[in-house]
Amino acid sequence: MTEPSDKLLGLNVLVTGGTGVIGFWLLKKLIALKLNTTVLLWDHANNSEPELNELLQSTYNIHGSLTDIKLLNSLIEKQNINIVFHLGAQAIVEKGLADPFTTFESNIRGTYNLLEACRTHNQTIKSIVVASSDKAYGTHSQLPYTESTSMNGIYPYEVSKSCTDLLARSYALTYNLPVSIARCGNVYGGGDLNWNRIIPGTIKNLINNQNPIIRSDGSHLRDYIYVQDIVDGYISLGSATISDLPNGEAFNFGNNNPISVIDLVTAISKSMDKMHLTPDITNTAIGEIHSQYLDSSKAKQVLNWEPAFSLEDGLEQTIKWYTEFFAKANV
Questions:
Q1: What is the 3-state secondary structure (H, E, C) of 127-154?
Q2: Which is the catalytic residue, given 112, 145, 155, 157?
Q3: Where does CATH 3.90.25.10 sit in the chain?
């Protein structure tokens, strides 16, 4: 049986945002597939340095910013890039609220710069996967989101993802670029050192025998998808884009099992045998949509993709990763 990754063999790959959480696991997959992978490096302070640095020894690395279009043009031409996984973005909701300009520069300008560079070198480009998010949909009363739900971002991070999504579709349909769009739920897994995110933050607190902190009132509903599932989704989408997938198609990637924040924290506490540590519910979150979750049936029907990890299985793997990480760090 042919695997989706088989269609990537022999191609030159560019990954932006390769040092983020998803990018970290995507690089592991691409390196395991022995693909010729180039990484645009801007910053990798938010990942586990030793393991990340080991991965980067197996890739061709260019330091620079998505806001530098001359660099992007040069990079795509010199490396003869065939497939792009565009994950590069300012990905923290709170930072978007505090610093909208930098968020818009990175997420909006960075996206149209990359797409323009790909348009300029469209003779060699076979597939571009643009990482969007459920945040691109903004607030809607009707849930779950389907791919036909309108882009309705309000807060800066949401707007940046709505624009990323629309730019990708514009370049795909206007210039016949082989662009596809991946809209994922909340991704979790080892390697995420942003402790403000609910899963790594809760695990860290519980490892340190501290009460977990919930910044909302705990009732917010979210999709949580394990990072290896979303990597498989990106690979499947990249492969389909190389084949006969129409340009500009968008796909939701979620686990089709929304859960409240308080129930998620309870599940983590139970898995770690730390139920005696009760959550500190601060209800101080600002600029967050109350409920967001996805209908991923299109990805199953068209890409033959569905999550391989249940929430319980994904949390088990994630808790194991952080337990080992903190043991090595002696924190």
A1: EEEEEEEHHHHCCCCCCCECCCCCCCCC
A2: 157
A3: 198-220+257-289+309-329
